[in-house]
Amino acid sequence: SCPNMSTTASPPGSECPPGTWCNPPTRLEYCPPGTFGNTTAGRSVDHACSPCLPGYWCPVEGLVYATLRLCTNGSYCPERSALPTACPAGYFQPDPGKTSMGACRVCPAG
């Protein structure tokens, strides 16, 4: 985006920051939950935002790689998770960063 009094189309430092995109250039938009920002000067959600990585969750707008949240114990996070998915009743999962229901283990009898 061009701030007031710009003398070029893309003055240094005026690019949309990671976690956002600008289209039109004067309107800042944030990467939606379930995604994170992967570039500077993004022109669209598809250009600027990637699906949240498997094993992580992206609960809010505008996240970048450094702010992804590791999936918590007792749950799993497939690609594009905005929230962790809890293992169902009767299952447990002791480790963080799991990506599928297959990581949930059946609780022992008793």
Explain what the structure shows.
- The chain has 110 residues and is mainly beta.
- It is 4% helix and 22% strand.
- It contains one helix and ten strands; from the N terminus they run βββαβββββββ.
- The protein has a two-stranded antiparallel ribbon.
- The longest helix is centred in the middle third of the chain and has 4 residues, at 45-48.
- The termini are far apart.
- The model has no long low-confidence stretch (mean pLDDT 89).
Question: What's the quick description here?
Answer:
With 110 residues, the chain is mainly beta.
Could you outline the blueprint of secondary structure elements for this entry?
Blueprint: E1 20-22, E2 28-30, E3 35-37, H1 45-48, E4 49-51, E5 56-57, E6 69-70, E7 75-76, E8 85-86, E9 91-92, E10 105-106
Question: Which descriptors would you attach to this protein?
Answer:
4% helix; two-stranded antiparallel ribbon; 110 residues; mainly beta; two-stranded antiparallel sheet
Instruction: Write down the overall mean pLDDT.
Output: 89
Major sheet characteristics: 2 strands, antiparallel
Alpha carbon gyration radius: 19 Å
Order of helices and strands: EEEHEEEEEEE
How many β-strand stretches?
10
Distance between the termini: 62 Å
Continuous helix count: 1
Largest sheet: spatial strand order: 1-2
Shape: rod-shaped
Fraction in helix: under 10%
Low-confidence stretches: none
- Strand fraction equals 15-25%
The SS-based structural class is mainly beta
